[in-house]
Every structure is written in structure tokens, then in C-alpha cells.
Input
Amino acid sequence: MTEKIGVLGKKSAQRTQRSGVERVVNAPLPTVYGEFRAIGYLDHDRGDEQVALVYGEIGTDRVLTRLHSECLTGDAFGSQHCECGDQLAAALRAVVAEGSGIVVYLRGHEGRGIGLLAKLRAMALQAEGLDTVEANLALGLPVDARDYGVAAGILHDLDVRSVRLMSNNPRKREALVQHGIEVAEQVPLLIPPCENNITYLRTKRERLDHHLPHLDAVGQLS
Output
């Protein structure tokens, strides 16, 4: 009898296990860009803690939105290996200038989803001559392992039906559409390249289909 109760208890626990994203907290967040609301979420599927920075009254349609993949080196350390930190700042400025909008900061997306240490290993290989795609593959890792289901879940929770998506990456648009979020417009987020990231950006354009037309006007920087 005791054994049966134990089995039933396990089945009950399995039935009550939560999935999807859960809104946990909504706190004011004053920043150098403006006064945001930081809405925190728990991703029950992956265990990640996520946050959406919301500015103004966002409405439901054509909301100016950025899905920003976590990048410690670019966002916090100012790395010039990529343009991530500048893109994050530009997106925050853009939603403030618009008067409303959302920046969803996606943790677990470090290095296009391979993690911080793997990203650093890939950067070391790039310093030896591989491009960003070749480096991931040389490590036996996927070129892009990011999943945008949690971002769509957050937008659904915020009652957003359609977005003007600040991104140069067509895969972000495709992912949101697959998860039921209409992309009314894709808004370019173009950052002037520098000597340290021009090769990386050209690889993103040529091998990952990122829309980076401003690179056409840039000569060899290195």
C-alpha cells in the first residue's frame, strides 16, 4: 500500500509541474535612458530568470520591441568584438524616443545560445583566423542554439499582438511569427562597425543572413 501511495504521489507531482513563463515581479527601474518598468519572469521550462523592460503605455499592436540576446562581454564590458552593447543602448534610446516600447532581455542566449565559456573559446578560435560560424562548428556546437519561445510568451503575457521588431536578424522575425506574434515591421538596428568587429559583422551578413546594408559603404578597416 505504501509503495502505491509513493507512485501516486510522483504522478501527482508530475501533473502539477509548471511550464511556460510566469510573471513574478513588476518594479520601477530608473535608468540613464528613462524610467522603465522591469517586469521579471521565470521560465519554468528552462529555469532561466528573464526580464522585460517596458517604457510607457505599450498598447497591443505595432509595439516597438527589441529581443536582446544576453551578451556579457558586449553589454557589460563594452567588447568591440560584437555590436551587442551598442545595439542594447540604441534600442533603449529608441523606445524612449518613441514614447513607448519593450526591450526583452533574453538570458540563456549568451554566444547565440552556447554559453559564456563556449563563446570565449569560439572567440579564441576567431583570433586564430576562423569566422564566428566556423568557430562554433569547430567546437562541435550549433551555429545558433537560441530559442525565442520564452520571448513570445512574455509578449503574450503583456497582451502584445504585433510588434515593430528592432532587429537585423530574419530568424527572430520567423520565430515570433511561429509563436503567434505578428511582426508588422522589421526595424533595422544598424551600428557603425569598427576595426575589431567588421569581419564578424560581414560573417553575420554573408553566412547568417543578417540585413546589414550599411556595410556596403565601409572599406577595409583592418
About this structure: Residues 1-5, 7-15 have pLDDT under 50 and may be disordered. The longest helix spans residues 2-16. The first strand starts at residue 21 and ends at 30. The radius of gyration is 20 Å.
